[in-house]
Amino acid sequence: MTDPVQGLTGTLTSPIRAAGALGEVLVAIRGGTESYLARADEPIEAGATVLIVAVHPGRVVDVVTWIPLTKEN
Questions:
Q1: Per-residue buried b or exposed e for 41-53, using 16+ beta carbons within 10 Å of the residue's own CB
Q2: What InterPro entries does the database record attribute to this sequence (predicted)?
């Protein structure tokens, strides 16, 4: 069974300073918010919106920068 945060977006509350380094992501789930340790393959600044692509034991998640799709006119 996959963790319910996989596939959700969140906001980095502390930056991921280098590939594989840890930051922190805040995720809206279960009617509230929860924080997870986040890691990525590239640096990501605090305040960025990220997509959770994998979940690991110890509340560690892999994230990528979220690029929302926009409709072009």
A1: eeebeeebebbbe
A2: NA-bd_OB-fold
Query: What's the predicted TM-score (pTM) here?
Result: 0.87
pLDDT digits (tens, 9 = 90+) for 20-66: 899 999 999 989 999 999 999 999 999 999 999 999 999 999 999 99
Name the DSSP letter for residue 16. B
* 3-class DSSP assignment, residue 31: coil
Report the 3 state secondary structure along 35-67: EEEEECCCCECCCCEEEEEEEECCCEEEEEECC
Q: What is the DSSP letter of 18?
A: S
